[in-house]
Amino acid sequence: MLIKNNSKSNNMEIYLNNHANGTENDEYKRRLFSIMVVVFTGFIILIIRLFYLQIIEGEEYKRLSENNCIRLQSIDPPRGLIFDRGGYLLADNRPSFDVSIIVKDAKPVKQTVEKLSNYILTPKSELLTKINRQKGLSYYKPMVLKQDIGWDNLAVVEVHKFELPGIDIDVRSRRHYINKYTASHVIGYLGEINPELLKLELIKNGESSEYRSGDFIGKCGVEKSYENYLRGKRGGRQVEVDVTGRVVKVLKTIDAKPGHNIYMTIDYDLQRRAEELIADVVGSVVAMEISSGDVLAMASTPSFDQNIFVSGMTKEQWDDLTSNSFKPLQNRATQCQYPPASTYKIITALAGLEEKVIDEHSTVFCPGYYRFGNRPFRCWRKGGHGKVDTVTAIAQSCDVFFYHVGQKLGVDKIAHYAKACGLGAQTGIALENEVPGIVPTSDWKKKTYKIPWQKGETLSIAIGQGYDLVTPLQLAVVMTVIANDGVRYKPLIVRRVETVEGKTVYEGKPEIISKISINPKSLAIIKKGLWAVVDHGTGKGSKLPNIEMSGKTGTAQIITTTGREEKLPYKYRPHAWFVAYAPSSNPKIAISVLVEHGEHGASAAAPVAKELVKTYFSKNKLKSDQSYALKDDNIKIDEKSLD
Q1: What are the E-state strand segments in 474-629?
Q2: Closest by CA position to 628, among listed 579, 583, 591
Q3: Considering the chain, what percentage of its residues have pLDDT values greater than 90?
Q4: Is 342 a catalytic residue?
């Protein structure tokens, strides 16, 4: 019995042991399964991550990897040169040393910038501000921190190069204007591209954009108008760099293509002479070739040195330019408009003759005033001119004669001929911000001031006062129209554009804007009057002994005066005009001269035209045709003419 009990006990023990082992195995399996799930999940996550890195972000990380050892560096193209019409160099290029930073390589950035600021003598805050301004641009691309550092600073940076990771010196071609202040407004100047424009360029053209941080672009003048020709095509090189960003090997180079060269219509000698003649006044001179519309000279004073925009100007220099009351940055030939004064009588005379309101024999008695309603409109000559005909009225600039003509014509007919001659609209010259001037009409006043035109206002318009506004360039165009018998050319500022090999890629050909149908008799009368102005009229002080010149003086009042302008403050003194062409018989050159607050065209503006005509004829070895002597013994001229 005892043996049987022991057997049952052993069986129970074996059963319990087996049951315990089964439980342990199940627990082990559960743990193993959990581990396998974790491992599997980890593998899934790893595979997803690898897929993301290799497939989705593969190109980006490949680029980042290559940038750690291989980079593309831009090579700036040399900007095209600018010459005058005869090949005289006006704008050249010179080498410049610019400091750039690649932010990714310059870590720690603040410490690197601090060292650099000491070496190039530039405040750290200024350098950091430039970096912050460039946010959004690639940290693998160089950002220009300081331009044109000079030889001394260059040597210091090169000596401490190993202390300045990510800092590089770029040798760039920088604009250099040969003659300071000469033709500044026409040639224009360059300025660094601003971050906003750069971002727009990158958005528009992506990596194919020709512009990079620190690039210079045309800001005004020909530099801006012909930017696409001048800038050239960027090159590049593939280089291997070390961990600090220093180049250790050049792998491949694509040379930059230089910009095209520009040959302007400007004649350097004539331009310099024009600038010399108005150097001490505020004003403008425009000279045009009558047969083509070429602008031979366009001077505006005061002028400015374009080089300071390229080499970097101080705050004081910028303040001097922008706060100067004479506004030296404005091109007075195209961007400022003035009352035309008596030069507008050419238009009034043309309208009167063409509308048959007057003819060569029409006469008016001038007692010194013209009464309209209850108001007397004065003539510039207090005692009057007496009896004058059309030619004499032009020669003596008799206001009363033109009051009569204007009143018979009406403002709208005068405006028609003014617009036909090119007034009241941009001339189309390839210079930015040209103003159109104003040629008033009855509809214009109604739209502008919401009140009807008054007949008395036509009297002021007829003599170039009132709402009339013109630019010096527009009046030069008017003179070419008269000299060309009604043909109006578009003013040209560039003759041709050439590659560095000398191949012409653009040619500025004479372009006729319009041809006015004018009765030859009307033109003959006006030309006779303009000749008389210089021969023995209000502009006779500028008569040349061997060159016949035709012209018209003008005195544009700023405020109503009693004839004592010399006692007026400068800003209220009249502007002085003189427009002309020469020679009278076979015109070659048309000139417009404006002297702000010069008081009288005969004394302030006409002598400028006289000297410029002398320079032109001397340079071109031309002779005047003396057969154009239109003598008229009946013309009587006041010896003290001041208009």
Answers
A1: 487-489, 494-498, 504-507, 512-515, 550-556, 575-582, 589-595
A2: 583
A3: 58
A4: yes
Query: What is the distance between the alpha carbons of residues 104 and 245, in angstroms, rounded to a whole number?
Result: 9
Question: What's at 490, amino acid-wise?
Answer: K
Tens-place pLDDT, residues 498-539: 999 999 999 999 999 999 999 999 999 999 999 999 999 999
* Three-state secondary structure readout of 315-355: HHHHHHHHHCCCCCCCCCCCCCCECCHHHHHHHHHHHHHHC
- Report which of 594, 40, 633, 585 is spatially closest to residue 281, judged by C-alpha positions: 594
**Which one is catalytic: 117, 173, 300, 342?**
342
Task: Return the closest-CA partner of residue 298 out of 189, 224, 188, 223.
Answer: 188
Q: Are 332 and 211 in contact (CB under 8 A)?
A: no
Asked if residue 200 has pLDDT above 90, the reply is: no
Q: CA neighbours within 13 Å on the CB side: how many for 280?
A: 4
The CA distance from 599 to 376, in Å, is 23
Count the neighbouring beta carbons within 10 Å of the beta carbon of residue 153: 18
Predicted local confidence at residue 628, as pLDDT: 44
Q: What is the dihedral of CA 110, 111, 115, 121, to 10 degrees?
A: 20
Q: From its phi and psi, is residue 128 left (phi > 0), alpha (psi between -120 and 50) or beta?
A: alpha
Domains belonging to the chain, first-starting first, are 70-264 (3.90.1310.10), 271-303+336-628 (3.40.710.10)
* Overall residue count recorded for the chain in this entry: 643
Cβ atoms of residues 76 and 213 within 8 Å: no
Percent of the chain with pLDDT over 70: 87
Q: What is the largest CA-CA distance in the chain?
A: 175
On average, the pLDDT of the chain sits at 87
d(CA 296, CA 615): 12
Residue 367, both tokens: 């007692």
Q: Determine how β-strand 295-301 pairs with β-strand 283-289.
A: antiparallel
Burial class (CB in 10 A: 0-12, 13-18, 19+), 209: middle
